[in-house]
Amino acid sequence: MSEQSPRPRTRKAVVPAAGLGTRFLPATKAMPKEMLPVVDRPAIEYVVTEAMDAGLTDVLMITGRNKRALEDHFDRHPGLEQTLAAKGDTRRIEAIRASDLVGHLHYVRQGEALGLGHAVSCGRRHVGDEPFAVLLGDDLIGAQESLLSDMIDVQQRLGGSVVALMEVPEESVSAYGVAAVEPVAGEDPSVVRVTGLVEKPAREDAPSTLAVIGRYVLAPQVFDVLERTAPGRGGEIQLTDALQTLATGEGEGYGVHAVVFDGRRYDTGDKLGYLQAVLELGVEHPELGADLRAWVKDFAAGL
Predict the structure, then answer these.
(1) What is the predicted pLDDT for the residue at 102?
(2) Which of 13, 114, 261, 266 has the fewest CB neighbours in a 10 Å radius?
């Protein structure tokens, strides 16, 4: 990235976390789906850590009713720390202090579940007039991947908004927003221009098999577009519809590019994806990995 670029670098993140988690009932009847554990950390902590690692130290979480556990998790717990200190358990003290992000995290409620576009618009006052990232709590990206940082670089270099795309099987396109794309002269092949977006198309209507996954870097002009966006599929305000307007319009903040991602990603909003995340991250765990790998081999041999 040229140091002479006049564009500000993205420094804020919005994390929508107001969903009801109905696909995981009854587990989510009293627990936010974002707090379901992936090995020994709740799923939402992986997402917030990813934002922090990309330099986004100002994170706004969009919450809803019965989400107080999210705030408690990222808060200090002096009583617990004192109990662990009395036992000399410094390892666990360090582990819980890693999630102490008071001062970096802020919260606002989405009063009514009116779609992802509406959730993003709830962050307008906090974000202000600057580009910002959106990270969906259901999507976990491998800790070694640079996807978010790459997207921030592309947005600073090319302007407009940037989405993350990933190849999906043709039979799965109806579960995603799907993009039509074209190459960008002078850019790496993984960076493309988005010429159109369709939310959850029928298989025969999909413009490609490149699906939008849960990482975005958005120009602040998206807020004005969302205000004008009528409810779409499911009666909700769809972020995909606003991005379609940005992709086909002209002017400051318009235009949408994408980074095509082929790294490790887990859809923890899906039961199978959640179990895959637990297993894959579990076998890499520094304490549990060796024993779990041995057990998996024995278990698989008996199938």
Answers:
(1) 57
(2) 114
Domains, the chain, in order of start with CATH, read 12-269 (3.90.550.10), 270-303 (no CATH)
Amino acid at 6: P
User: Exposed, middle or buried, 251 (CB in 10 Å: 0-12/13-18/19+)?
Assistant: exposed
Tokens of residue 278, six digits: 């637990």
Question: Which parts of the chain register pLDDT below 70?
Answer: 1-5, 99-103
Whole-prediction pTM: 0.90
**Tokens representing 229?**
């966006």
CB 237 within 8 A of CB 228: no
List beta partners, residue 213: 164
Going by their DSSP bridges, the two strands 191-199 and 177-183 should be labelled as antiparallel
Structure tokens at 255: 């235009």
Residue 21 Rama label (left phi>0; alpha psi -120 to 50; beta): left
Parallel, antiparallel or unpaired: strands 177-183 and 265-267: unpaired
Q: What is the pLDDT of residues 93-106, one digit of tens each?
A: 877 777 666 568 89
Residue 88 to residue 99: CA distance in whole angstroms? 20
Helix axes 90-97, 78-86, angle to 10 degrees: 160
